[in-house]
Amino acid sequence: MGRHLAYDDDRHPGFGEPGTAPAPWRDDTLAIRAGFERSDFGEHGEPIMTTSSFVFGSAAEAAARFGGQDAGLIYSRFTNPTVQVFERRLAALEGSEAAIGAASGMAATAMLMLGTLRAGDELIATRNMFGSTVNLFRNFLPRYGIEVRWADDFVPESWAALVTPKTRLLYLETPTNPLTEVADIRAIAEVAHAAGARLAVDNCFCTPVLQKPLEHGADIIIHSATKYLDGQGRCVGGAVCGSEALINELTSFMRSAGPCMSPFNAWVFAKGLETLRLRMFEHSRNAATLAGWLDEQPGIARVHYPGLESHPQHELAARQQKASGGIVAFEVEGGREAAWRIIDAVKLCSITGNLGDARTTITHPATTTHGRMTAEDRAAAGIGEGLVRLAVGLEDPDDLREDLERALAGATRAVSA
Fold first, then answer.
1. What's the pTM?
2. Which domains does the chain have, with CATH numbers?
3. In 3-state terms, what secondary structure has residue 332?
């Protein structure tokens, strides 16, 4: 069994044979109990294993373990007990056989690309996603002979038209960053599987609480643990979830390239998973409240939020997700000047590019999170100069509304003057 298996503790009630799901346990219990094995000390909480290496009983044991693909604890670049707790717990929540932690969300994405693709392979993706992911695919993968073919929408036939015998991977975000566009995971997965390829889904905005891509046919899940999995903006990290065979591929890459997650960060993320469900539904409730209010305000041309009936994929989101998430994007009349004026006028919301925090954050995607994209890519992704992204936190929604109301009023007065 791989060392990143979701269920590999048969010492505790609820677990069966290693590698099998504990049928009596549901997601809320898995988020708190999965993946943790107590030591002989009997500790109740997960310890942080701050060690760079692990010792062996003999030279022969060291040689045998270093030579194996999965030979236990050797070196914390390969694996670490605290990191394993996070990996097993996240895999349990996503319903995957295994998971592997990484130093950041982008490290996880790069590890997936370089650990599974090779020169001559092709990847299909859209530009409707996080700017750094677009930049990785456009500016770096071609250096290694990996061609990226760009889909202009989420229509399955459009993706199928881009498939060639060299296609190995399809990659998408749903909902997308920042416009919250929703893709039909099952339909795109069918395109991938018909071509003998795999589908990877960035599940950052929903987390396994609101959406489980594997249940809709996806093969691989990417996470920026920096966002909601942490939930309080404390640490940077990422993860890939998938089959044991996939994680073994990525483990081999990790051992050589080293984009590993630190034990301390893994401990923070593992504890974050314990409250993830409570936070995600509260983020969603607050965001829905603000999205509905913003949709009625003068000076706002359009609000992007899957929970609004005006959202083009509202019905799909309702079928595929348990709630609409915490991200609201809105377009203001007056372009960049008006957008910046609103952002500069807020007092409660934090002006920062991060998201998934307990604190509400606000940013101008065209000049921050997506600022390094080409103007052509931003236009293709629908990211205009008047677009503002609001990552709604856990504050009282009335306080957030009043903060935005003052900002919008100030921007309106400035335009009128």
1. 0.91
2. 27-274 (3.40.640.10), 278-416 (3.90.1150.10)
3. strand
